[in-house]
Amino acid sequence: MRYALLVQGGPYSRQAAHSALRFGEAAIARGHRLETVFFYHDGVYNAARLAAPPQDEPHLVDRFRALHDNHGTQLKVCIAAGLRRGLLDEREAARHGKQGHSLEAPFELTGLGQLIDAGLSHDRLITFSP
Amino acid sequence: MHDDSMKGEVLVILRHAPHGSSWLREGLDAALVAAAFGRRVTLLFVGEGVTALVAGQAAGALGQKGTQPTLEMLAMYDIDTLLVDCQALDERGLGTADLLLPVTTLAPPELAATLAAHPLVLNF
């Protein structure tokens, strides 16, 4: 089956992102395809480039990145929710006159229309909310 | 069940009150975008979400944008199927006369059928 996940919980503070990762990895292990993860609401913080968790905790950003690198999963971040919360790629950082950027590939800023498309074009969209 | 509730492609469930979090605003944003992309959108207000429809949701001391202007724009986006969990209204001492927009009230068994009738359900 072709899956999309919607992640709406921030990393570490809520269970949602951990559960989404575990679900995604398990689905892939069962032979399904995890084509898209869409980050919205506080879920956008899962794309923070500078996340530096302690070494004895799962590195959520790296785990999401690995889904992309190993399985081609697209990691899409709502641009409106991201900008409000300080998640900007290089282009948006320049556009808004910011010195650094906080989001980079394979995470990509995209519109909410992509969430609607993902929901209607995949076999399943599973939501992980706090 | 009300016929209109069967027609939508995207069901957006709103479970949160206007202030205290951005759930309602970001949920409404998703509904507007879906409609702007030509999808038929149904809104379903449940639990605390029913308070979003009470008139006068202006910007206040919290500094959040009010949601009433967004709700008033729904018709422009052809979002005219607004469903409300009637039990949630009753529990809060509200009736349809207290609400800003015309709605269709649903009893609990109809809620399940509404979910089943929509290919995409987004829960905020």
From TrEMBL, chain A:
NCBIfam families: PRK00207.1, sulf_tusD_dsrE. Pfam families: DsrE (PF02635). Belongs to the DsrE/TusD family. This is Sulfurtransferase complex subunit TusD. GO terms for biological process: tRNA wobble position uridine thiolation. Gene3D superfamilies: DsrEFH-like. It is found in: Cytoplasm. PANTHER family: PROTEIN YCHN (PTHR34874), SULFURTRANSFERASE TUSD (PTHR34874:SF3). Keywords: Cytoplasm, Transferase. GO terms for molecular function: sulfur carrier activity; sulfurtransferase activity. GO terms for cellular component: sulfurtransferase complex.
UniProtKB/TrEMBL annotation, chain B:
SUPFAM superfamilies: DsrEFH-like. InterPro entries: DsrEFH-like, Sulphur_relay_DsrE/F-like, Sulphur_relay_TusC/DsrF. The keyword Transferase applies. Keywords: Transferase. It comes from the Bacteria. One of its GO terms (molecular function) is transferase activity. It holds the Pfam family DsrE. Belongs to the DsrF/TusC family. This is Sulfurtransferase complex subunit TusC.
